[in-house]
Write a structure and sequence with these properties.
Order of helices and strands: HEHHEEHHHHHH
Number of domains: 2
Shape: globular
CATH topology of the largest domain: Four Helix Bundle (Hemerythrin (Met), subunit A)
Helix content: 55-70%
Number of helices: 9
Number of strands: 3
Largest sheet: 3 strands, antiparallel
Radius of gyration: 19 Å
Structural class: mainly alpha
Length: about 230
């Protein structure tokens, strides 16, 4: 799909860093939802013309997307949307699962008041509403809202940054899996309920098993949805 097939508009923030982030966010959303497929060439000039920005801002935006595993940049060939392969999907899930287990474990150990857990109830309700409406985009957004709620309680900046780097790539796989098997969203809400019970009871030993089981199931869904895997 050409970058300029549609009239693309983004809200640009009034500084160079803000412009770069706005471009990166706009392109990331199109990659995550599948509008820009793996292997799609991301030409700096075309992007600059589409979003009415400088090529230097585009170049910085592509570097941000490379950092979160949505884009690959090759010498003399330029940037392209990362192709999802069985190997890099498995590697992504191995890493992200370990990060989620660490987040869940630290959350169970470090929460201090019930008020810190209340936002998770709101996220759970939003997830269920998305399931009822078969809203994949909304459901994926709420899945990662769980991490946004948890990271301030855990208060580990290194873990927060590591999660921020992998969330876009994991979100891309969620879109791929749930758009083909939307019924699996309901199972994730049940896993979330079990995790919340374990966190509230500080049953740290239950968290790795719950997350490993779900992550491997979802990984298999993604692998089965890859082109050439049917």
């Amino acid at each position: 799909m050409p970058l300029n097939q549609k009239n693309q508009s983004i809200k640009l923030l009034p500084n160079a860093a803000g412009v770069t982030r706005s471009i990166a966010d706009a392109l990331a959303q199109r990659i995550i939802c599948g509008e820009l497929a793996g292997g799609f060439a991301l030409r700096e000039m075309a992007i600059a013309q589409t979003y009415q920005v400088s090529r230097s801002s585009v170049r910085e935006a592509l570097l941000l997307l490379q950092r979160c595993y949505l884009v690959d940049i090759y010498p003399r060939r330029g940037a392209q949307v990362r192709v999802l392969t069985a190997q890099n999907v498995q590697d992504l899930y191995d890493l992200s699962t370990d990060l989620y287990i660490l987040l869940g474990t630290l959350l169970a150990q470090r929460w201090q008041t019930q008020s810190q857990l209340l936002p998770f109830v709101g996220v759970r309700r939003a997830m269920q509403l998305s399931v009822q409406n078969n809203d994949v985009d909304g459901f994926v957004k709420h899945c990662f809202a769980v991490i946004e709620v948890a990271t301030p309680v855990v208060d580990n900046p290194y873990l927060r940054q590591a999660l921020a780097n992998v969330i876009p790539a994991v979100g891309r796989t969620y879109h791929l899996a749930f758009k083909q098997r939307s019924a699996e969203m309901e199972q994730l809400t049940r896993i979330f309920d079990q995790l919340l019970v374990a966190v509230q009871a500080r049953e740290v030993e239950d968290i790795p098993g719950l997350l490993h089981a779900y992550a491997q199931k979802n990984c298999q869904l993604v692998l089965s949805a890859l082109p050439g895997e049917h």
